[in-house]
């Protein structure tokens, strides 16, 4: 193939990618058993080990999730955050996510504990709401982060809870992407 034709061919394939912005992909679905699955993913230009630090260290989480963070990373441990920088992680306004399990640099499963901002019916029924965070090496020093929330109940109170997390999780993953602009 002549160099000019090769250059034109290369240009045709590369032009659509120029200026493409990183985005949050919503790939939520309902399982064949009728259970809702809330799923978002993003791709970031760092290794799985660096992504792991963003999710499991106080300093990493403070960069994108909340100004006040305390972690106790172990099975049976927790991640506590507070969006109010004048408060602590021991304050009643703090959010605690219990660590169900993890595979270092690959997967973290968190028990989502609903607080007083959610309908009392959802809080009283909440036994299984979890977030599974996966880190997948996609080559060239890039990692795909996949967040999947499972364990939703049924009814209008759960629909409201789902909608809250659908909006909130999209915002949260956009915050991570801002680290790489």
Name of the top-level CATH class: Alpha Beta
Work out the helix count: 5
Ends apart, CA distance between termini: 38 Å
Rounded to an integer, what's the Rg over CA atoms?
Answer: 19 Å
Number of domains: 1
Low-confidence segments, given as residue ranges, are 1-20
The helical percent reads 25-40%
Instruction: Give me the CATH architecture, please.
Output: 2-Layer Sandwich
Beta fraction: 25-35%
Oligomer designation: single chain
Give the tally of β-strands.
9
Q: Provide the structure class.
A: alpha+beta
| CATH homologous superfamily annotation | START domain
Shape, please?
globular
Element order: H for helix, E for strand: HEEEHHEEEEHEEH
User: Which topology does CATH recognise?
Assistant: Alpha-D-Glucose-1,6-Bisphosphate, Chain A, domain 4
Describe this structure in words.
- This protein has five helices and nine strands.
- It is 30% helix and 31% strand.
- With 181 residues, the protein is of the alpha+beta class.
- The model is unreliable at 1-20 (pLDDT under 50).
- Strands 1, 2, 3, 4, 5, 6, 7, 8 and 9 form a nine-stranded antiparallel sheet that branches.
- It has a single domain (22-178), classed as Alpha-D-Glucose-1,6-Bisphosphate, Chain A, domain 4.
- The protein has helices at 3-14, 48-56, 58-62, 120-125, 156-178; strands at 25-26, 29-30, 36-44, 68-72, 78-82, 95-103, 107-112, 130-139, 142-150.
């Amino acid at each position: 193939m002549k160099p000019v034709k090769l250059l034109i061919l290369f240009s045709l394939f590369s032009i659509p990618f120029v200026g493409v912005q990183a985005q949050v992909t919503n790939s939520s679905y309902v399982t064949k058993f009728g259970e809702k699955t809330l799923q978002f993913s993003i791709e970031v230009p760092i290794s799985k080990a660096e992504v792991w630090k963003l999710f499991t260290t106080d300093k990493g989480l403070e960069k994108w999730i909340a100004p006040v963070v305390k972690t106790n990373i172990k099975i049976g441990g927790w991640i506590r955050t507070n969006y109010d920088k004048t408060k602590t992680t021991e304050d009643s306004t703090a959010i605690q996510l219990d660590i169900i399990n993890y595979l270092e640099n690959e997967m973290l499963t968190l028990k989502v504990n609903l607080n007083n901002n959610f309908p009392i019916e959802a809080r009283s029924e909440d036994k299984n709401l979890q977030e599974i965070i996966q880190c997948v090496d996609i080559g060239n020093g890039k990692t795909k982060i996949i967040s999947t929330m499972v364990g939703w109940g049924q009814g209008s109170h759960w629909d409201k809870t789902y909608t809250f997390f659908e909006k909130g999780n999209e915002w949260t993953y956009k915050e991570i992407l801002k680290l790489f602009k």
